[in-house]
Design brief:
The complex is a heterodimer of chains A (303) and B (253). Chain A is built from 8 helices and 15 strands. Classes of the chains: A alpha/beta (303), B alpha/beta (253).
């Protein structure tokens, strides 16, 4: 905040000094850095895998993730921590406590936002609603309409964060529940086509709300090899514009590094997913420089 | 407009343009593995501890004893572990169903793939039930016409797998894998009769291509998880000693 105060003061001084050159040079501030951290499909994996586990021995564990997030936040206070759904189901912690512990711990890690996965309905929509008091973070979903359910007013389509003066719009997308989750569980939740909703959301966040960054928190899955036309993150990236980052989930896709996709107008979109069970933390750093971009495609992407 | 107002307007314009005059210059993305090189956060660990102890004490307390190790691969058309599961579902669900409806379950069918682990010789705990049945599926009872029950029998004959069925069903295949004899409670299946078949919600909804549950006359949802059935069943039995038997067999003549 101090930096911004300084910039504002110097701006005022410039304006008072002269009407001519508008004094843009006076914004001689250094780059701003926004860090996005993310998990997906943690599936109640609170404890690390044991030393004898056949696949993930000694990996994961939320107490370690807490240390990692804390140290990243210490280096960069302009950090946001997101989860892309399927927080619930996978260890007896969920069966015993119904998600209470998952939400309490995520709150202790200062998660900023999450979207809703299909397994988050595993104790019914009532079961999800019952755990909301334990979550100090909010949920976004733009393509689930909860109007006729107990979750009405508890889930927003998007949320806007302002970090170091940078405006970050984040919207959520969920997977089609019919055929995947028992109707008795999701009740009157209405699903809308993620691509149409995302096209609208990106317009709202970019054009109307003037966000500097637009992020989609998605639980629709990365890609379906056997159904290449099925709606998924890669197809979503192609069919939309003005989205900078899609953070995915559902397919438990362990991407060694984020995928760089092209959107409908040929611009880059990052798509990332960090598998499942809290084995990895995704980190995307966005750097902003003062002044207008020298050329249209001047952003460097390093993955 | 006074000079002061003009200046104020200019300042506002400048502030706005200042906001917009940052551009995205660079993006860096990576993943960080969470492993034992990262320090455990003591505060988080302390918070989890009582939950973990409660869950582990509960899961690891001994509720039965298994006289042998049972696997779903120990038999062609029926296995000891599958018979145990189907009979457990019958024994635990029927009182609930009977109390609600005054009727009785005729038999139970589950699927071979739904047995997710062996039961090891020795102490049996709730954790055993979690291993055998990690999913949240629960019991439903479907009212089916005899005609549909025959489709169920044909499915079993064609699948030639040890899909668990409870002891009330007797199914014998001949050497050509066609149904030689099929009875429920020692009575041949009556095409016009009505039967109450217990299964789980996954299979009812067509899992493992079990399409014979539709059409049906009614559906009763018991809200009783298969895993909880196993836990309740284990608690009632001092020892588990299930057997492969003749409920679903093939004879070679």
């Amino acid at each position: 905040m101090k930096r911004r105060d300084f910039i504002q003061q110097s701006t005022a001084a410039t304006a008072l000094l002269g009407l001519g050159g508008l004094g843009l040079q006076s914004f001689s501030s250094s780059a701003k850095k926004i860090t996005i951290l993310h998990t997906n499909d943690v599936h109640s994996h609170i404890d690390p895998f044991g030393p004898d586990d056949g696949r993930n021995a000694n990996k994961g564990g939320i107490a370690r993730r807490a240390s990692l997030v804390e140290s990243i936040r210490k280096n960069n206070p302009h950090t946001l921590l997101f989860d892309a759904g399927d927080i619930f189901q996978g260890t007896p912690y969920f069966n015993y406590y119904g998600g209470e512990l998952e939400f309490k711990l995520m709150s202790m890690l200062n998660y900023d936002l999450a979207t809703i996965g299909n397994h988050d309905f595993d104790n019914g929509i009532e079961g999800l609603h019952a755990q909301l008091p334990h979550a100090d973070f909010e949920f976004v979903s733009a393509n689930y309409d909860f109007s006729n359910t107990i979750m009405d007013a508890h889930v927003k389509p998007y949320k806007i964060f302002i970090k170091d003066g940078i405006k970050i719009g984040v919207f959520g997308l969920g997977i089609q529940l019919e055929g995947l989750v028992d109707k008795n569980m999701y009740k009157e939740t209405v699903y809308y086509d993620p691509i149409e909703i995302a096209q609208d959301m990106s317009r709202v966040l970019k054009d109307e709300k003037q966000c500097d960054l637009v992020i989609c928190l998605s639980h629709i899955g990365y890609y379906y090899k056997n159904a290449p036309n099925k709606v998924c993150d890669l197809n979503l990236a192609k069919a939309t514009k003005d989205i900078d980052l899609i953070i995915g989930g559902h397919t438990h896709t362990f991407l060694p590094k984020p995928t760089i996709s092209k959107n409908s107008v040929g611009e880059n979109v990052l798509v990332n997913q960090v598998g499942a069970y809290g084995l990895y933390l995704g980190q995307i750093d966005f750097y902003f420089e003062p002044g207008k971009p020298p050329t249209a495609e001047s952003t460097t992407i390093i993955v | 407009m006074t000079v002061k107002q003009i200046l104020q307007l200019l300042i506002i314009l400048l502030l706005v343009s200042c906001n917009q005059d940052f551009h995205l210059s660079k993006v860096e993305g990576k993943r960080i593995e969470i492993n034992d090189s990262i320090t455990t956060n003591a505060k988080i660990e302390a918070f989890i501890k009582p939950y973990r102890e409660h869950v582990n004490n509960n899961l690891d307390s001994v509720i039965s004893y298994s006289v042998d190790t049972y696997s779903k691969n120990d038999g062609e058309l029926n296995t000891a572990i599958g018979n145990l599961m189907a009979d457990a579902v019958y024994n635990e669900s029927n009182p609930v169903f009977n109390k609600r409806t005054g009727k009785n379950i005729d038999f139970v069918i589950l699927n071979h793939g739904g047995i997710r682990s062996i039961i090891s010789k020795g102490d049996v705990t709730s954790r055993t039930a979690y291993e055998v049945m990690p999913f949240e599926n629960s019991v439903v009872v479907v009212e089916l016409k005899g005609k549909q029950v025959n489709k169920l029998v044909d499915y079993l004959a064609a699948a030639k797998r040890a899909h668990p069925v409870s002891s009330q069903l007797q199914l014998t295949l001949d050497k050509n894998d066609t149904v030689k004899y099929a009875s429920v409670n020692n009575t041949p299946i009556n095409e016009e009769g009505t039967y109450f078949i217990a299964t789980n919600d996954y299979l009812y909804n067509g899992g493992d291509r079990m399409t014979f549950f539709h059409p049906n006359d009614s559906l009763y949802v018991l809200d009783y998880k298969i895993r909880n059935i196993l836990i309740d069943y284990f608690k009632k039995k001092d020892t588990l000693n299930p057997k492969r038997d003749n409920r679903f067999i093939k004879i070679n003549n």
